[in-house]
Amino acid sequence: MSISLDHLSPLPARRWRVPPLIQATLACHGLAGVVALARPDAALWAGAAVLLNHLAITVATVTPRSQWLGRNVVALPPAAVRRGEVAITIDDGPDPEVTPRVLDLLDQAGVKATFFCIAEKVARHPLLAREIVARGHDLQNHSSAHRHTFAFLGPNGYAAELAQAQQTIETITGHRPRFFRAPAGVRNCFLDPVMRQFGLTLVSWTRRGFDTRRALPRQVLRRLTQRLAAGDILLLHDGNAGLSPSGEPLILSVLPALIERCRAAGLRPVRLVDALH
Q: In what helix (H) or strand (E) does residue 87 lie, and over which residues does it extend?
C-alpha cells in the first residue's frame, strides 16, 4: 500500500527546550576550543573532556529510559498513580497470527491496552489495525519500518520516518498518533525536536518482559511484576514475539497472568492516552 506524503505537514512545533546533555555538549566543545587555543599545553586535557562528553552521548543514545536527550515518559503521571493505574503496552505489530488472539484475551479480561505499531505492518494488515482501534484500544507510532539503524538517522531521516508513519496510521485508522516509541528504545539527539514538530511525545517503559526471545512465561512475568506499582508502563510484544518451550507466543501465556497480578495488587490497566491526557 502506497501512501502519498504530498499534503502532509508537521503540526505547529511546540516550544523545544535544549536537553541538558546537549547544552553540556555545546558548552564542553566551546570551552575545549578556547582552552586549546589559549593553553596549547592543556589541549590534551581539553580533548579528553570532549571524548568523555561523546561517551556520555553514546550511553544516552543506547539507554532507552534516558532523559538526557529530551523528554521521555517512563512512568505514568502522579494523577494516574493516585488512581492506581498502570499501562500495558504492546509493540511491533500488528501480527496476523498473534494480534487477534491478544485482542480476544484483552476483551475477555475487559482491559484496554496501547499498541505501538510499525506503520509498514499497519499498511500490510489494515483491517487488523482498524480492529485494534474498533475494540477501544490505543494505536500509536512505533516508526515506519523499525529500522535497526534508527539511532543513526539525522533530522531529515527522522522527519521522513515519522511523517510516513503518522500518515499511514492516520489514513488507515482515522486516528493520528500522539505518542512515539523508538525502535528498541534507542535514538539520538536529533529525534526530540523532530518528534515535537509532529506533536509526538516519546514514551518508553518502566519495565519490560524481554519477551522477544525464547523464555519461560514465568520468567517474563517475573520481570514485569517485580516491584509492580501504580504508574508502571509495562512492555510486551505481539510482533516479533518470542516463543515459550511449548512453541506458544509468550505474550499469549503471560498476558492473562499479568492482568490478574495487576488486579490482585489493586491496579487498573488503562490506555496511555487516558493516563497521560
A: strand 85-93
Measured between alpha carbons, how far is residue 11 from residues 77, 117, 176, 196 in Å? 24, 21, 11, 8
Residue 178, classed as helix, strand or coil, is coil
Q: How far apart are CA 138 and CA 115, in angstroms?
A: 6
pTM above the 0.85 mark?
no
- Catalytic site residues? 91, 237
Look at residue 18 in the predicted model and tell me its pLDDT: 60
The alpha carbon dihedral of 143, 144, 146, 147 has a sign of negative
Q: Are 38 and 237 in contact (CB under 8 A)?
A: no
CB of 116 within 8 A of CB of 273?
no
**Phi and psi torsions of 114, nearest 5°:** -115, 125
Nearest to 88 by CA among 103, 78, 98: 103
For 121, the grid coordinates are 505492518
Judge whether 119 and 144 are in contact, CB under 8 Å.
yes
Measured distance CA(258)–CA(251) in Å, rounded = 10
DSSP state of 151: G
Cβ–Cβ < 8 Å for 91, 116:
yes
pLDDT number for residue 218: 97
Do 148 and 188 form a contact (C-beta atoms < 8 A)? no
Distance from C-alpha of 99 to C-alpha of 183, rounded to nearest angstrom: 19
Q: Which element (helix H / strand E) includes 132?
A: helix 126-134
For 31-46, the pLDDT digits (tens) are 545 545 666 665 564 4
